[in-house]
Each structure stands twice: as C-alpha cells, then as structure tokens.
Write a structure and sequence with these properties.
The chain has about 375 residues and is an alpha/beta fold. The chain is built from 15 helices and 13 strands. The chain is about 45% helix and about 15% strand. α9 links the parallel β9 and β10.
Length: about 375
C-alpha cells in the first residue's frame, strides 16, 4: 500500500500530530511494508533535516497565498501514485488537491483550526463549544464553511475523543466517524517522583494563547519557591513574550525554556518530573498528557476534551477550574506538594489506566484495520 500523510507539524516541531505521525508512519513502513511519504510545513532552518521517512517540507514562513498554492500543488504531485491519503493536518489543501486526484481520504480531527486561529489572534473569547453555535462575521463564517466542506469530502473521519466525535456529528456528519484513542508506548520504569525536596513541574506544548502558559508562569512566580522549577518544552508565536514575562519573576532562574527537544531529551525531562501541568482552554486528547501519565507522573490539567475522562473523579490526577486562573494553579500545586504520597498513588493509577486504555499497539492495529477495510471496499 502506498500512503501519503499530510501534517501541519512534524518533528522537530512539538505538538500532537508531530508526536503521532512518526509513530504511525514508522509502523506502516517497518511493520507492514507500506510505502510512506509525508508532506509537512516546517521552519526554514529545518527544511533539509534528514528524516527516517521520505519527507517533503514546505517553508511555513512563505507568503500565505504562495505557500497555500505550493502545498496544494505538492499534494497533487505526491498523491498521484498513492492508494490513499491520511490527513493529520493541511486538510483544506488536501481537499482541493483531491478534487483532481480522486483518492480515498482518511482524516484525523484533533480540534478545530478555525476556533484555534481566531482565539489565538484574540478575535474571539468564546470557548470551543460556544464558538460552534454562535454567529460571527464574514471571515469566520466563511472559514467554518470551508472547514465543513473539507470534512464532508473525507471518506472516513477519525477522532481521538468522544467530545470531538460529538463535534463532528453536530456538524452533520454521522455515518463515517470512527473514534480511535491516541496511544503511547508504556515505559517500564516510572519517573523519579518526589525523590528529593526539588519539585520539577513540566509542560510540553506549543506556545500559543489558548495553552495559558502565561498563567502557569504567573503562578510559579507568585509561589516564589526556590525549590519549585518549571520546565517549558516547545516553541511558538508566544515564546518571546512568555520569556519576557518570566524575566520579571523573582525566581526567573527556575523558569526554564527548553525550546524544541528531540524525543529522548523530552523523555529524560519527564523521567525527572514530579508534576505535569496542562492548563489549556481546549484539548482533544493530548499525547503529551498521556505520555506524562505513562511515566506515573501526577498530572494537573483542565477538564476539557477527553482530559476529564482521563483523570476520572480526580482519582488519576488533579483538575483545574475553568476559566483558568493563576490563583487556582497555585492552589493545586500547593495541594499536590502537601500530599506527595496521595499524588504518587494517583500517578500510578493514571499509569495503569493509560496502559490499559491507551496502549499504542492497540491504536496502531485499529488504524491498520481501517486502512485495509477502506481499500478493500474501494476494490470491490
């Protein structure tokens, strides 16, 4: 089978698709002998990186119309000899190219890019769900229509959470949706949790507005505890602003911006983390949260998307309130540090739950069966 995968981000970028796409590509290529080609956007400095797969990178800093047209043409060029296209980003561009290619498309939906763009540019303040039912001006309304058209042209839509599945159903697409959980490899060892007085708090994220990293930094600054260190892994449009904010903190030396890291370096920091935090206004089913839980790390996150189900009734972690505030973050961090034994138990419960429900091998097997079934139906 020959498969083209499109993704808006790919290593060394940080984010869900950048985590998942290499895993599924590696599985299809090495285990199933599929021919895999990947198209992604990339920063200029990473355009010539050597990859384990055949990867075509388009400079994301190109003028937007030129980049958009170049992406459509490249999908058309690469997709000509493929059996199907797996879309984990660049959905609209793929839809347009496929008007001419007429290939089968399996599309993974991990959020709503229309909401995300509008929120991160401060054009709206509504949460994910309210945004879907409210009316806006011409620009956002047009983007919603294009989004819906693109989803409609997919043969199968995959969502990693029930919340996202409901989102797609509410758009009017009921018959071609499959929920397949995100999956992670389960490490044999647990993280080194609460082994000394130092408290290492970690977040792995794109640095964008709806992740509320400014409020996390504010909470750490207000705690002003020299034994609490915050590791921020990732980059994004807010990086310079967040770094400037951290420089105004009395404990600025304990707020560490690591930037983009490779997988081994990320895992090493997770192994030495005591708390993992995710304070987003919206998530589907974040890989980074699953990975932290797979190490038995106590997690603190917002009850958005599938995160609330992951943590149960706070049996497997700690939940922040919405809307997110630095006062609530401070309070929860203080609570976790004051009950280290309970937090450790919750971390182990989280690991056990992820091991059972979100094992990567099970996830990849479900994808394989879906790909094969779609092509069998095509060849009947």
């Amino acid at each position: 089978m020959r498969v083209l995968i499109t993704a808006g981000i790919f290593p060394p970028d940080i984010g869900g698709p950048a985590t998942f796409v290499p895993k599924i590509a590696n599985y299809f290529q090495d285990e199933l002998n599929y021919e895999i080609e990947i198209l992604t956007l990339s920063d200029r400095k990473n355009l010539n990186i050597n990859d384990d797969f055949s990867v075509k990178r388009i400079n994301r800093s190109l003028p937007i119309i030129y980049r958009w047209l170049k992406t459509i043409f490249t999908i058309y060029k690469l997709g000509g000899n493929k059996d199907l296209i797996f879309v984990n980003g660049l959905g609209t561009e793929t839809t347009i190219a496929n008007i001419f290619l007429k290939k089968k498309i399996i599309r993974k939906i991990v959020g709503d890019p229309v909401w995300e763009r509008a929120y991160n540019k401060s054009k709206i303040s509504e949460n994910f769900d309210d945004f879907q039912v409210r009316n806006y001006g011409l620009s956002i309304s047009l983007q919603k229509k294009v989004r819906n058209f693109s989803i409609k042209k997919s043969d199968i839509v995959i969502t990693p959470s029930q919340h996202l599945k409901d989102f797609i159903i509410n758009l009017g697409f009921k018959n071609k949706i499959k929920r397949i959980n995100n999956g992670v490899n389960i490490p044999k060892e647990n993280g080194k949790i609460f082994t000394n007085d130092q408290i290492n708090i970690t977040i792995v994220s794109r640095l964008v507005t709806h992740k509320n990293i400014e409020k996390i930094i504010g909470a750490i600054s207000d705690l002003n505890n020299p034994l609490i260190k915050l590791n921020i892994i990732g980059d994004g449009p807010e990086q310079n602003q967040l770094h400037s904010i951290s420089l105004g903190s009395d404990n600025k030396e304990n707020i560490i911006f690591h930037g983009k890291l490779n997988r081994d370096d990320i895992n090493n920091i997770l192994l030495n983390s005591d708390i993992y935090i995710q304070a987003s206004n919206y998530e589907g089913l974040p890989h980074s949260l699953l990975e932290a839980m797979s190490y038995g790390i106590p997690v603190l996150c917002t009850p958005v998307g599938e995160c609330k189900e992951l943590l149960g009734n706070e049996d497997r972690g700690y939940l922040l309130n919405l809307p997110v505030s630095k006062e609530n973050i401070k309070s929860k961090i203080t609570e976790i540090v004051s009950e280290k034994n309970i937090a450790t138990i919750k971390g182990q419960e989280g690991k056990d739950f992820v091991s059972e429900k979100y094992n990567l091998a099970n996830t990849l097997n479900l994808y394989k069966n879906l790909f094969i079934k779609l092509l069998e139906e095509e060849n009947k």
